[in-house]
Amino acid sequence: MSETPPESxxxxxxxxxxxxxxxxxxxxxxxxxxxxxxxxxxxxxxEGEKHKDLDEAxxxxxxxxGLLDATAxxxxxxxAAPLRDGLKSLQVxxxxxxxxxxxxxxxxxEKYTGPVYG
Length: 118
Hints:
Blueprint: H1 11-19, H2 23-41, H3 54-71, H4 77-97, H5 110-113
């Protein structure tokens, strides 16, 4: 007896579902996913060093900073403030994890946020 895999939702169904989600919620969800991935790549999870990859972390933190910069006027400060705080924490963690820290203003995302000292 073979089991049939559950049907995956079709494109139309997924498009209908996403159409009901406010843009601010999509932006915040993407930002939180970038933050989570960056934290893993910075070694800030329980398994720490196992997943640490500063090159990957740099890309994720930079992408998060760009997203927050681009959407600053689109999302309320209610949503933006904790995301900016999280970004700064990741930038400081990156600086602390680097064997040779970037010059102030040259770290991941600092193009958008300005220099981060930690």
